[in-house]
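Phenylalanine--tRNA ligase alpha subunit
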Amino acid sequence: MQERLKELQQEALNQINAAESLKELQEIKVSYLGKKGPITEVLRGMGKLSEEERPVMGQLANDVRAAIADKLEEKVARLEELEVEKKLANESIDVTLPGRPAQTGGMHPLTSVVETIEDIFVGLGFEVAEGPEVETDYYNFEALNLPKDHPARDMQDSFYITDDILLRTHTSPVQARTMEKFKGQGPVKIICPGKVFRRDDDDATHSHQFMQVEGLYIDENVRMSDLKGVLLEFAKKFFGPNQKIRLRPSFFPFTEPSVEVDISCVICNGEGCRICKETGWIEVLGAGMVHPRVLEMGGFDPKKYSGFAFGMGVERLAMLKYGIDDIRHFYLNDKRFIEQFKRA
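Predicted structure tokens:
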């Protein structure tokens, strides 16, 4: 029996040395170490041995099993290593080959313009405030001194969800909500960028959805000259250092006095052209001093505090800055249009 075990060990080791694949090694393992293998068959005859011989043969059988298992493990590791080396050799990379160019995206021009506007006003001490796009009638109209019979409240202008809920028609509700948060204690100095919605027919210069940036500054002794200075500084930083502005009397329910703000034409530099209708000026935004009633509804004492507000359309500024002739280009997702605004 002892000789048979040693013969089986030598046979197994020889087969392991000759094996050239992991499959062959698995078959050898099952053949010699399995329950139906020759080693197990030899051990079944241990009942014929004396009590002194049994432990000796049992230890020998365990040693044979261990020797075969160790050799199998060693050969498996070697074959796996050879497979990895072969795979690396077949899949080697030529590092001298040129790489594939990565397709990079570009920032949407409206996003770029909004970020530019934010950077300018943050540099002037303003903070960026946000609010919900689905608003209540109170914050969208009433808190801004827009009475029930005002034309802007007509269903033809607004997207109403219920009698009291609508898609905001401007970002001014953010100003009303911010004033409430300050509880009558100034200063308040914010800009409010965001999407707004109005019932309008889409064409080259109109859209039912567009973007606005509005600003609000409330403090003691705020004057119209402060408003003009801020807007002039913005125009110079956004359009160029030679920009000029002019203020024309206008009317808005939430400001008094109210003005329309023009900039010198960016196309002809104020000399007169088709774009500015030979006037040299282009209207870009509305502004004015915050109406005392709006201050009062926001929790501020109009005898102590004053302020100014302004609002501008982002698409209009972008069209002027980049010479875009149709507002619909911003929303058609045409890659040829977007790719023109990739940053260097």
